[in-house]
Specification:
There is one protein chain. The chain has a domain at 21-80. It is built from four helices and no strands. The termini are far apart. The protein is flat, with a radius of gyration of 19 Å. It has 87 residues and is mainly α. Helix content is 67%, strand content 0%. The chain has helices at 12-18, 24-39, 43-56, 60-80.
C-alpha cells in the first residue's frame, strides 16, 4: 500500500468525503433533538439529571456541555409551542 492509501482501496481524498466530521454545534443540536424525540417536553428533566450526575462526579466540562444542550432544547421547545411567533 502506498503512502496516502487506505484499506479497501480508498485514498485519503475519498475517505475525507466518506467520513465528514460533525461540528460541535451539530453535535449539540443532535443531542437536543435526541432528547426531544425520546423525552418530549420532559426532556429538561433528563438534561437536569445528567447535569446533577456530572456535578456530583466533578465533571464540570460535561455540565457545561449539557447546559448548551439545554439551551438548544429550550429553543426547540419554544419553536414548537402553538403561540410561537405570535405577539
Amino acid at each position: 500500500m502506498g503512502r496516502g492509501d487506505c484499506v479497501g482501496g480508498w485514498g485519503t481524498h475519498d475517505a475525507a468525503y466518506a467520513f465528514r466530521m460533525v461540528t460541535r454545534e451539530q453535535e449539540l443540536w443532535g443531542l437536543a433533538l435526541w432528547v426531544e424525540k425520546h423525552h418530549g417536553e420532559n426532556g429538561w428533566f433528563y438534561i437536569a439529571q445528567h447535569q446533577d450526575r456530572l456535578i456530583a462526579q466533578g465533571e464540570f466540562d460535561g455540565v457545561a456541555m449539557w447546559r448548551k444542550v439545554a439551551e438548544r432544547f429550550e429553543t426547540l421547545q419554544d419553536a414548537r409551542r402553538p403561540d410561537a411567533g405570535h405577539t
